[in-house]
Amino acid sequence: MSQSERIIVDRLQSPAERYLKSWESLLLLVAVAIFIANSFASPYFLNAWNLSDATFNFTEKAMIAFAMALLIISGEIDLSVASIIALASTAMGAAVQMGVGTPGLIMVGLGTGLLCGAFNGFLVTRLGLPSIVVTIGTMSLFRGISYIVLGDQAYRGYPSDFAFFGQGYVWWVISFEFVLFAIIAVIFAILLHKTNFGRAVYAIGNNPTGALFSGIRVPRVKFILFLLTGLMSGVAAICLTSRLGSTRPSIAFGWELEVVTMVVLGGVNILGGSGSIPGVVIAAFVMGLVTFGLGLLNVPGIVMSIVIGALLIGVIALPRLWEKWRR
Amino acid sequence: MLKRFLASREILLLGAIVALLVVIATRFPAFVAPSNLADVFNDTSPLILLAIGQMIVILTKCIDLSVAANLALTGMVVAMINVAAPGMPIVVIIMIAVGLGTLMGMTNGLLVWKLQIPPIVVTLGTMTIFRGIIFLISDGKWVNSHEMSSAFKAFPRADLLGLPVMSWTAIIAVILFTIVMTRTTMGRSFYAVGGNPHAATYTGIDVGKTQFRAFTISGALAGLTGYLWVSRYSVAYVDIAGGFELDVVAACVIGGVSIAGGIGTVGGALLGALFLGVIKNALPVVNISPFWQLAISGSAIIIAVALNARANREKGRIILKTAEHAT
Q1: A127 to chain B nearest CA, in Å?
Q2: Higher model confidence: residue A322 or residue A58?
Q3: Is the separation of the CB atoms in B113 and B239 below 8 Å?
Q4: In chain B, at which end, N or C, are there fewer CB atoms within 10 A of the end residue's CB?
Q5: Ranges A56-70, A224-238, A313-327: which has the least confidence
Q6: Which is more confidently placed, A30 or B189?
């Protein structure tokens, strides 16, 4: 198994050096390289509207990824996020049939997300069950409920003002979703990097028992993190449902993988304890650019998933291979 | 002794399956006719085969989410080989299937062993990569029944002493792996590694190598099942057995395999798979929409893991009451 050896350096790197060698700078470099490669590969890439369209590839997933980043830093994981989207979307669809208006739909979407998150959080923190199995279970359960409700049917007929969340533009090419994504990024960056709560998340991820003995309410913090992940899945469900204008039980299928990939690509340690929100933001752009670039080159979706899968393994494998080779 | 036997997980589960059958039999006696039960067993055989492999992987504190994709890729490859060379003997086809599955299992194992990448990340990644490769080699096309040679399709259905070869494969695998897991050094080392990795290292067991072996076995079984699946259903396409990895994990968890490693038996995995198999086959009989199945297996996972946690909770002296939840 991996031995946890800590190397304490006696000569600290200068701040500039540390910044340049950080995962985030490397990732930024990759993002810029992909951007340049894309603009050479396709004449349609450097177009404000096309680029604006490209942001829809990652904004919804990234909203969940921010909450997921905190959850993974704390040493837990939630694989049910895509299924929460399906359930929240189904609940909103059902509400539409009952004649609920747009403000009500938002409440239903967020409420379903919170409830699902609370259910996961309850099972993990109160019953002490491993989050990976619990959320594999709720992943089937939540989407299963959508299938029971909808079967092979679909909900349509969302009110026209509901379309704003997924299709509206705030200013010129800047979509509402993109603005929401930016706001959520800032909120989570502050929460993780500038508050006691954020420090507690790191502490729990590095040593849960130590965190408990230093007075951190570990179960409560974890419960809140599951709630936040559920809430963000609810937000993503609202945006996605609004963008698509319909609900099927297969909505957002397989997104959990892409969200986890985004978080890991962003430099968050899958075993918990380290990671940053700026890293996840850059990772979101990298993934969005890759998907968009491949899309412009007419690469089918399933082949893109090879790239995503390889990216997930590659970003973890390469630094370790590099370490091995240097020794 | 008798008390321990009665309280054992396997007996409880067997009781639950029998009770389930009795309840169904009161309304639909035809369901428990021996021929129908044999059909149910045959239908559950792929799940049993994969659950055995998954159990061994979970014993070593890992998880293999790529089994269904491995199955689908192997199935597609042998189907395409059969179309290209219809005269190839079935023995060679089976050897190719097992070999290919083993190779994919070894890939997972090597990444876990040599680079110490968390198994969940590795297998989430390889899961999408394997699925993507199916699309690449098949161009998204189906291999249909009429393209396959009759010998290719006949093998798993061939009757041997009243049961199809498919069922016999599962029975032989259960017997073989029961012996391996209880009577061989390698089998015991899986338990040792999952029960206490540090102690296993001190007794001279290479933890990483043992995990590698577990993945290799899981891959080999998935490869074998790939051929059986494709030939039995006489069709191969990108999405066969989609989401089946969740059923496999569910079968293990229901069968009392602890996700924390070190606890589990082949008999448990068999019964867990049969439990799901009976439910799946009973749903259409008792006239419940198949759309319920996803939610039912999800709930079964959650209930089973909650029961496991209750049963396995250590009854030691608790110094700080909340500390047990923290870790």
Answers
A1: 7
A2: A58
A3: no
A4: N
A5: A313-327
A6: B189
C-alpha B181/C-alpha B191 separation (Å) is 9
Q: How far is B1 from A91, CA to CA, in rounded Å? A: 51
- Give B 88-127 residues with CB within 8 A of chain A: 111, 115-118, 120-122, 124-127
pTM of the model: 0.85
Determine contact, residues B268/B55, Cβ cutoff 8 Å.
yes
Q: Confirm if B276 and B41 have CB atoms less than 8 A apart.
A: no
Spatial neighbors of B30 by CB under 8 A, at least 6 apart, are B36
The continuous run of DSSP H or E covering A61 comes out as: helix A59-73
CA dist., res. B179 & res. B191, Å (int): 14
Start-end of H helices in A245-300: 255-265, 277-296
Read off the pLDDT of residues B175-199 as tens digits, 9 standing for 90 and up. Answer: 999 999 999 999 999 999 999 999 9
Closest CA to A92 of A83, A81, A103: A103
Assess A195–B contact: CB distance below 8 Å, yes or no: no
Distance between A3 CA and the closest CA of chain B, angstroms: 10
User: In which band, very low, low, confident or very high, does the pLDDT at B7 lie, cut at 50, 70 and 90?
Assistant: low
Asked if B305's CB is within 8 angstroms of A134's CB, the reply is: yes
Q: Give strand pairing partners of A14.
A: none
What tens digit of pLDDT does each residue of B264-316 get? 999 999 999 999 999 888 888 888 887 888 888 888 888 888 877 766 555 55
For position B321, what pLDDT does the model report?
Answer: 54
Say whether pLDDT at A76 is over 80: yes
Q: Which residues share a beta bridge with B163?
A: B160
Which chain A residues touch B323 with a CB distance below 8 Å? 209, 212
Q: Distance between CA A38 and CA A288 in Å, rounded?
A: 12
Q: What pLDDT score was predicted for residue B327? A: 44
Q: Which residues neighbour A61 within 8 Å (Cβ) at sequence distance 6 or greater?
A: A236, A255, A258, A259, A262, A284, A287
Query: What is the Rg, in whole angstroms, of the alpha carbon atoms belonging to chain A?
Result: 20
Q: Which domains does chain A have, with CATH numbers?
A: 46-318 (1.10.3470.10)
The ipTM of this complex is 0.80
* Mean pLDDT along residues A147-172: 87
Structure tokens given for B203: 């007794």
**Is pLDDT at A200 greater than 80 in this prediction?**
yes
Which tokens go with B232? 């039995």
Q: Which of A132, A118, A279 is nearest to B123 (CA)?
A: A132
Inter-chain residue contact B302 with A123, CB threshold 8 Å: yes
Q: To the nearest whole angstrom, how far is the Cα of A199 from the nearest Cα of chain B?
A: 17
Q: Distance (Å, rounded) from C-alpha B201 to C-alpha A177?
A: 51
Q: Which two tokens mark B316? A: 């030691």
Kindly report the backbone phi and psi dihedral angles of residue B287, in degrees, each rounded to the nearest multiple of 5, phi listed first: 65, 40
Pair A113, A84: CB distance under 8 Å? yes
Q: Helices A131-150 and A102-121, interaxial angle, to 10°?
A: 140
Q: Tell whether A61 is within 8 A of chain B (Cβ).
A: no
Q: What does the alpha-carbon distance between residue B263 and residue A45 come to, in Å, rounded to a whole number?
A: 54
Report d(CA A247, CA B313) in Å as an integer.
Answer: 42
Indicate the domain borders of chain B: 34-241
pLDDT on residue B312: 59
Nearest to A219 among B249, B260, B325 (CB): B325
Quote the CA–CA distance of A105 and A160 in Å, as a whole number: 12
